[in-house]
Amino acid sequence: MSIKRREFLRLAGLSTLFGLGGKAAFELIAPGQLDAQSYAPEAHAAKAKRWAMVVDMRKLDDKTAAKCIQACHLTHNVPDIANPVDPAKAFPPEDQVRFRIKWLWTEDYHNAFPGEEHENLQEKLHHMKFLVLCNHCDNPPCVRVCPTKATFRRPDGMVMMDMHRCIGCRYCMAACPFGARSFNWKDPRPFIKEVNLNYPTREIGVVEKCTFCDERVSKGQLPACVEASNGALTFGDLGDPKSKVRELLRANFTIRRKAHLGTLPQVYYIV
Amino acid sequence: MLEQAFTGSKKYFGLLAGLGFLIGLGALGYYQQLTTGLGITGMGRDVSWGFYIAQFTYLVGVAASGVMVVLPYYLHDYKAFGRITILGEFLAVAAVSMCLLFIVADLGRPDRLFNIIKYPTPGSVLFWDMVVLNGYLLLNIVIGWNVLEAERNDTKYKKWVKFLIYVSIPWAISIHTVTAFLYAGLPGRGFWLTAVMAPRFLSSAFAAGPALLILLCLIVRNNTKFDPGREQIQTLAKIVTYAIIVNIFLFFCEIFTVFYSQIPDHMIHFKYLFMGVEGKGQLVPFMWFSLIGMIVAAIAMVNPNIRRNENTLAWACGLIIITTYIDKGLGLISAGFIPNPLEHITEYWPTGLEAMITLGIWATGFLILTVLFKIAVSIKEEVRA
């Protein structure tokens, strides 16, 4: 059977239409999954069904927390807005608060777990500084609202951020119940003292956040904060019953931030 | 018809020049923002949406309110509105244009704007907002233009235009509903997490939009040979009256749920707006003025003597425009972020540059409005001559 040129063009056009329609339909059923699945992990990458983190506050003192934050922010070229490379260009204090970029930082108990505090809390809770970061939620509202899929959830649970696709609408910042997202209100580069050449710096106008060190995990390494934490932070696979995180969750009482909102945060705290 | 835009009185061109000057100032400010980042605004990591998004929200309402003249005319065959439907449609065109400009002004990376179309994401309300706003803009341009042209040629507009008019009625409702859904579906923002958000948006829109249209009708009457008509203005006034009362009612519905349930996450934002929290409450006087002003205006509008007198009516409409503007343009957006989800309190106030860019966009909208109204009024004068 031979197809005439015209027939062929008609068929080709129709099948293209179908193809496009098919893609759109897939997007409706599983938004945000399409692009995430096209990543192929490296051969020696650490793999997991579901990455998660346990923060053991019994082992975390302020010094260790500061070390974790420093490790994270140095690794990822997170600008230190309070300390510009050129001290003459420092912002007034209220602007330092406004423009601050945080991937990993500390909060008091009543700020990290609002609504959970009461007047007669255990004494130690008054002094504890809780390390907080992106919770890599299983049901992330930031991914739901992003109009360009610049932020997306990988099948292994990492909530990723494509800073080259982000249009800077900041809808994700409104959606995140944990304040885990930062926007580049100013050019961040004059605020980075030592640039890590193995990780990109950012431009004006995009949102950024912790990505569970996907770039290190893909090389089989632990996240930078976990490595610096002297065992206070544990990172591992929730899908593996023998993993360290599962062991800790089995043996200890843990809490999560704002679990009642249904975002299913995957950072657990042992208090 | 476009030629009508290029002829006119000295006053007309003077107005265009004045608006052009403000647009130029806004453009200068925007250049500064484009090169050094959104840090020139008063926004920050805690209050990450501000004046631009608030103006956008208010103006979506003004745009949607065009339906308040279109619906009675086309669905209820209320003939009197035939004279002013075009004004309602052209007001919608100007308002939606401003909405789109405010969205672009708020983007950190406007150069990547088209990523919204390149990577369509039906799960995002912002994607749908883009669809409905652009659709509404197109509908109103096409409908307004065709109906006006038919009027000029003394013919009936084509059948497909009628079809588009019917489509535009639910579409108008959709733009403000989708805009309310931008806020009303976020788990961590107690202030916005309310089903009454979309109805409240619509009621305040159907008060503010027709109130603005009444003022515009009075301006048109005083400055041209075209009279939009006394009956038309009075019917609009009744629409404004009902809508502002519904808006106040819905506000108190919200207050009841929030304060009788006593859930802190929801109460704290209202406390911030009306009482101040931890000594911070720069919006408190504005919010009380807005609430009391809205009630005073509603009582005034209910009174037939005040409503029927076009001078007092104009004052009441002005008060409604200002008070709904404070409610939506100042309170609604920033209070959603104050306190932030970690219960830190950072206040927000727009900067001078931010206000300048905002003014530039308003001037752009009024330029579009002036030109479109000039065309419409010239045609109306021509037809009646």
Report what the structure shows.
The complex is a heterodimer of chains A (271) and B (385). Chain A has 271 residues and is of the alpha+beta class. Chain A folds into two domains: 1-31; 48-270, 2-Layer Sandwich (Alpha-Beta Plaits), CATH 3.30.70.20. Chain A has ten helices and nine strands. Chain A has helices at residues 5-29, 33-36, 62-75, 93-99, 109-112, 141-145, 171-175, 214-217, 224-227, 244-251; strands at 51-56, 104-107, 130-133, 151-153, 159-161, 182-183, 207-208, 233-237, 267-270. A three-stranded mixed β-sheet of chain A has the order 8-1-9. Chain A has a two-stranded antiparallel sheet with strand order 2-3. The N and C termini of chain A lie far apart (74 Å). Chain B has 385 residues and is an all-alpha fold. Chain B has one domain: Up-down Bundle (Formate dehydrogenase/DMSO reductase fold). Chain B is built from 14 helices and no strands. In chain B, helix 2 crosses helix 13, helix 3 packs across helix 7 (159-184) and helix 10 (264-274) packs across helix 13. Chain B is globular and about 65 Å long. The model of chain B has no long low-confidence stretch (mean pLDDT 94). Classes of the chains: A alpha+beta (271), B mainly alpha (385). Chains A and B meet through helix 1, helix 4, helix 5, helix 6 and helix 7 of A and helix 5 and helix 6 of B.
